[in-house]
Amino acid sequence: MNWAQYQADLMRIWPEIILTVTVLLALTVDLLLRGRDTQVTGWITLLGIGFVLYYVCKDYALADGTRVFGLLVIDQFAMFFKLLLAGGLFVVLLLSVLFRGLERDGVGEYYCVISAAVLGAFFLVSTDHLLMMFLALETMSISSYVLAGFLKREKRGAEAAMKYLVFGVLSSGTMLYGFSLLYGYSGSLHLPAIGEAIHQHLLVADGQGLGTEGIGVAVALMMVLAGFGYKIAAFPFHFWSPDVYEGAPTPVTTFLAVVSKAASFGMLLRFFGSVLVVDGEITPVLGQLVALLAALSMTFGNIAAMLQENSKRLLAYSSVAHSGYLLMGVAAMLTPGGSENSQLNGGQAVAFYLAAYAIMNLGAFGVVLYLSNRFGVESIDQYKGLGWKAPIAGATMTVFLLSLTGIPPTVGFIGKWYLFLPVIDKGMIWLAVIAGINSMISLFYYFRIIKAMFLKPEEEAIPSPRLGAHALGIVTLLAFLGLLTIYFGLSFGSLSELILEI
Amino acid sequence: MPESSLLTAILMTPLVGALAMMCVPSERRDVIKTMAAVFTGLPLLLSIFLYVQFDRANPDYQFVEFHSWVATFNINYHLGVDGLSVPLVFLTCLLLFLGVFSSWNINKATKGFFILLLLLEVGINGVFMSLDFFLFYVFWEVMLLPMYFLIGIWGGPRREYAAIKFFLYTLLGSILMLVAMIAMYLYSGNVGAADGGIGQRTWNLITMAQIGLQGGWAGAPAFLGMQFQHWCFLFLFIGFAIKIPVFPFHTWLPDAHVEAPTAISVILAGILLKLGGYGLLRVNLLCFPDVIWAGGGPTAWATGLALLGMINCVYGAFCAMAQKDFKKLVAYSSVAHMGFVLLGIAAANEAGLAGCTLQMFNHGTSSAMLFLVVGVIYDRAHHRDIEGFGGLAGHMPMYSSVAFLAIFTSLGLPGLAGFWGEAMALVGCYEVFPKITVVSTIGLIVTAAFFLMTIRKVFFGPVQDKYKDYPDLDKREWTCMVPLGLLCILLGWFPMLLLGWMNSSIAKVVEQVRSF
Questions:
Q1: Fewest CB within 10 angstroms: A30, A407, B166, B202, which?
Q2: ipTM, 2 decimals?
Q3: What is the DSSP string of A167-225?
Q4: B contact residues 44-73, partner A, Cβ 8 Å cutoff
């Protein structure tokens, strides 16, 4: 590769470069400030992410699918996810700066590690090369393991991190084995080439699936799917998620639920979108399996969530259920048929839902964090009457939970509606009905929170609230996210145009 | 005011009011209540204006407004009213306005209560005005949350249970509706695309009705051996049936009614139930006429509807008879009354549909009045046990007369409004389903029986001293009763005041349905 080409390629990855600088800067500043308990590192990281966001927006229009270093693709898909990830990280960082629990255990490292995780996520969503994909995934995962156990003195956190690590390594191993099989069959690590190979050589004549020779490929794809299943916490690969969500510090939980999940889905879409969809033709291998996983995942997640007492645990199971909803879109993407002009495919619906999910979940976790900051409570039972004591937190929580249930006029409804479109278009009405019934179940437990907050009188609220640290900051952030949830629920034209480009 | 934005004005005034009210400090209860009265009063005036301006001879949609909302998916802000919706818009505005007065005494979180009430009005009016299915659905769902809170925060002892039950039931219906709605949208683009027809996918209910009229759904893929339009009809029907409520889905209603505060019961019985009936007319009947009527006769589906209507009439009436709680009795009587709406729709002839729409409006006034009547006595006695009263007529003569008016309207005494809806629905239904109609009349008899028994137990009998000090109706209560009472009497003698507005639209619906 000549120097000019190298330079040109470097110019295309400004966001990643700035992110790397931010990681290093956070580390250095933390070293210089050691011992002094300030939030300086956090604000510096925030500034860095602000620049990243700026560059992502600036380069958005230029993304034309150029390949960089032969490993990355800078296309609209990647840019959309980068925007989502950086935006998500920005809010998580704000929450971290405003969170009370982190101060004791070396804040600086925290900001360094969380940014490194997002650096991995950035590469993850923009690569179509298996090697790079695995490296990026591990960068993100290993950082996440560290983050999950960040509060060293918390027993729950340590257990969570250990569990996360063991499950995560297992899943990575499974996925890696699948990758190696795919390489063996296709002779390439490049996703479109693998897709081409499968399409050309292994599809049986009538295009109805893989022939007997393709069984190995089917096994490999299933292993990869299992690996992805762990990352997105879909049933039956979700076992780590409730413990980790509960045990990790709330900002980290938010990060895992929003940023890490979005990145994993980005990778999943890129992988299956390249390997199983060649020139718009769908190889009908995994569609039904993914649809089944989706149905199981949402049903299990919702039923399990009904039994939870801890709000973070509840949101963890709800996140399992939401993986199920998202997998519906993937199932639609991998199922042939449907009308000629389907308007949006399953993958685009997933991307939209991820954006919606990010906004409402950031908000919901923000409220959980605010309440634990101010009142020191985390279980739903203790939320009694708090809606009257903290009206903005209560009102915004109502909006976020409505959105998570999928009731208009919120962005969550639009997201669910987008997912239903391709699913019904591909004739999977049963899946849509199951998802619908699941929304109803989810209403039941989401509204347990609202019931506790508003339907119980203020007198039942826990006495003597701790004085809120940074209360105003969080409340402003929550109000902003709440308005955003409603704004995109009413005026989703702009967002959907962004989606339809990818 | 330019004519074209009248509907938006009616629709959005309460929303503006709600937003403005958020800025008022919550201690200023008097200001908040006055604002609520103003911002529900204005739409009422506008809706009267709408009623007067409406062109009765024209069966088409009037005051149509059309703005693009999300062009990518052809979603539009598309409003319009015809003869079926104009009376219901008026009823909504009236009952919400009266609802403000009947909740004048609410002092627990007053601000929240009235904000939610105003938001509720936006949702209800939106459903009656929407000509875009997507918009229709959004408004349909917007109603749920205010209702949940209104029952759940200001309700009776079992309010939490009643509120979530209401929400869950309705949401189940909504979701099925959503699935059917999306399927209709996706398929609507295929219809007539080959021969230069519609071609583009649409949420427009008028276009969907055209597709139905041309039998366009018949080409859509069947699923599990049942045709596309039958699935859609079924899903939509369940959605609307829960709201009406139709027999197996009715169990949320008594709970919600009993626990809700008076004003909310009034709105629930007076308008929310009508949304179901309206939805059946507007969507099910107009978009899938061939499901109800095929080959010059009623289909099995129509028979099913009529049977469900019959069950509602009879079963609801018997349930009401068994109640000891006055409010629950009224709630079950609503179930019985809504049965006639179903009978009318199943018959799908002019008399039937006229009966159905009249019944919806008149039940709106009479049941609203009945709930107010129950509210009045509950405010004084703090219980609603029918057996525990007696001789109220001696102490509260004015109150008792108003109660009699409401009860007689409700049981369908000729000369009062309630008579017309039931009579015409039965006449219409007899033409198509004579046997079912005959059985349904049992419901009428039982209704009369339990209402008369209630009168005997509550208002007549020996005068009891413990009710001696109860004041008769006060000014505020009169304000709520008088307009409704007047409507009951006026429409009893001059049903054309309603029918005249509806006739041409009904004729058009019947013509469309009967063309199959």
A1: A30
A2: 0.87
A3: HHHHHHHHHHHHHHHHHHHHS-SBHHHHHHHIIIIIB-TTSSSB-GGGHHHHHHHHHHH
A4: 69-73
